[in-house]
Amino acid sequence: MSRRRFEMFQYRQVLVRLRQGDTDREFARSRLMGRRKVTALRQLATERGWLSPDSPLPDDATIAASVSPPRRASSTISAAEPFRAQIERWVAQDVGGIAIHAALKREHRFTGSHSAVRRMVAGIRAALPPETTVRLSFAPGEAAQVDFGAGPFLTDPNGTLRRTWAFVMTLCFSRHQYLEFVFDQSVPTWLGCHRRAFEWFASVPARLIIDNAKCAITRACAKDPLVQRAYAECAEAYGFKIDACPPADPQKKGIVESGVKYVKGNFLPTRTFRDLADLNDQARRWVLEEAGQRIHGTTREQPLAAFELELPLLRPLPDTVPALGSWHRVILHRDCHVKFQYVLYSAPYTLVGQTLWLRATDQMIAIFQDYRLVASHLRSHRHGTRRTNPDHLPPESRAFFRRDRHWCLDQAQRIGPSCYALIEEMLSDRIVERLRSVQGILGFADTVGTARLEAACQRALAHGSPAYRTVKSILARGLEQQPLDETLDSSSTYGQQARFLRDIRDLFSSALDPDSFTLNPGDSR
Questions:
Q1: Side-by-side strand order, sheet with 207-210
Q2: Which residue of 67, 88, 105, 172 is most buried, as measured by CB atoms within 10 A?
Q3: Distance CA 146, CA 208 (A)
């Protein structure tokens, strides 16, 4: 036998028809109420005097109190009743019934069944006030909501199979959206998606409602979230406010949450994609041709039609495209370079060991000490590249790197033709790198002057010995002031101070003459 539940207005209708004299058969025929129920109600109405035409019909509260008497309280006491206070505290902490039953057994030696705990938990939760929510409404141009959603797996340019992520920005009033699939959720990707979304809308909303993704919020907090530095710059450049939802409260951005579900349920199924470019091309056409033309379930309007009304109330784009950049903490190493994405960039050597801020855009790298700009470089995307500004190196290192082959030849040409010829001959050596020797020879100009150095180079060339040691010996002994001796063998050098300066024929002729040959005591071994 079914237990049909009757509303108060149905009891009132039966009472009206009873006062009009309808029979049980007529009630059964109308299927308003069964005969047994009508008989019981007629008896109750007769006892209360409700069928008298002179008396007014009772109100609904009186009828309800008469036909539904309060239930008698059960005399059975639950086995979990002694622990009601503790169970209420656990329910307030959203602890499940199974965990509560296990805790009671473990901590209080509870011997009751899990059903007893489950019934008490259900009764406690039924007595709690129901959760309520309020649907948010937005004025045209007031806000947009942003979120990421999981996309399909695709092969990246390196040939690796990776998951894609759907970046969705939905205007809260018109529900028109921007959809783009990317391979990561990094800060540069996040900022680039914002730029392309604003260009897609050709305008900027006054406020962006986001969740607490690391690319946007570095410290999640319900009252005082900490915004990522690069994202704060983006908001300042485009003129929108950042509204981060409280942690674990996605309902605050339910519009874009529904938008992400709509993308997953209506765009991704039954489609195939060659690569990321093909995926994004199909996504843009789907937004314009299908998603934007549908009748939205909440607004009951087409998003593109509503967007035409919202567009004049959105903020215009900046006159110049902002240079969006990501900020990173870096350490200046002992080689006077910082490392960012496998590329080295120089900074002043006086800051070695300090932690600096690096700002990276698509074209430039800027390095800051707090707020002060200390270095800037063109950005390189090739791993292993080194970007060095010579002014950032120590003085001794700058001097070493500045004195290259071209500098040496230029300095030698200023000193004189003999010096230039000697330096050029030394640098053209195919076996030994003689750059340090050349730098040493040119350094003599600071101590002895260019005239003496030119004469010493001329003498070294005349004797066929273009070497650092030769020039140094000539200058040390002052031989550059003497006239060139054409009788000297071209193979002789000035590597050591000569002990005999006599001609070889005169030496041997003297050796053959016993009277002219004397042995010095110092020459004996």
A1: 177-182, 161-171, 144-155, 207-210, 241-244
A2: 172
A3: 7
What is the pLDDT confidence band of residue 70, given thresholds at 50, 70 and 90? low
Buried b (16+ CB within 10 A) or exposed e, 40-65: ebbeebeeeebbeeeeeebeeeebee
Number of other CB atoms surrounding residue 200 within 10 Å: 16
DSSP per residue over 94-139, as a string? T--HHHHHHHHHHHH---S-HHHHHHHHHHHHHHSPPP--------
- Give the 3-state secondary structure of residue 405: helix
Locate the domains of the chain by residue range. Answer: 8-67, 81-127, 144-313, 326-393, 403-504
- Does residue 169 contact residue 279 with C-beta atoms inside 8 Å? no
Nearest one of 448, 445, 405, 452 to 424, comparing CA atoms: 405
Name the residue among 393, 385, 384 with its Cα closest to residue 347: 393
Take residue 513 and report the two structure tokens written for it: 């003459």
Cα separation of 430 and 94, whole Å?
83
The length of the chain is 525
The fold of 144-313 is Nucleotidyltransferase; domain 5 (3.30.420)
| 3-state SS class at 474 | helix
Separation CA 28–CA 25 (nearest Å): 5
CB atoms within 10 A of CB 374: 18
Contact of 360 with 188, CB cutoff 8 Å = yes
450-474: pLDDT as tens digits:
999 999 999 999 888 899 999 999 9
Closest CA to 416 of 389, 385, 439, 449: 449
**How far out from the chain centre does Cα 164 lie?**
15
Global confidence as pTM:
0.65
Burial annotation 245-278 (CB, 10 A radius, 16+ → b, else e): beeeeeebbebbbbbbebbeeebbeeeebeebee
Residue 525's alpha-carbon distances to 152, 392, 473, 496, 522, in angstroms, are 92, 58, 27, 20, 8
438, 404 contact by CB (below 8 A): no
Tokens describing residue 193: 């998606």
Q: What is the mean pLDDT of residues 417-429?
A: 91
